[in-house]
Design brief:
Elements lengths: L3 H15 L3 H20 L4 H17 L1
Helix pairs in contact: 1-2, 1-3, 2-3
């Protein structure tokens, strides 16, 4: 899905600045990404969930 990683990274960085806990920021971004996908596609598939988890792993390792 185009732009999902960029949007999640932006949300993570914004939320991380206002909240110091990394785990809370990652949970927030996970929920936000699910809502974003549902808004765009109307549903959340297993592939979407796998992509979200993959991006979250990248964010967790980099940040």
């Amino acid at each position: 899905m185009k732009g999902l990683e960029k949007a999640m990274r932006k949300q993570y960085e914004y939320h991380r600045k206002s909240n110091e806990e990394k785990d809370k920021a990652l949970r927030f971004v996970h929920n936000w990404a699910e809502e974003w996908i549902v808004k765009i596609n109307g549903k959340l598939t297993l592939d979407d969930e796998k992509e979200i988890r993959k991006i979250l792993e990248k964010l967790n390792l980099k940040m």
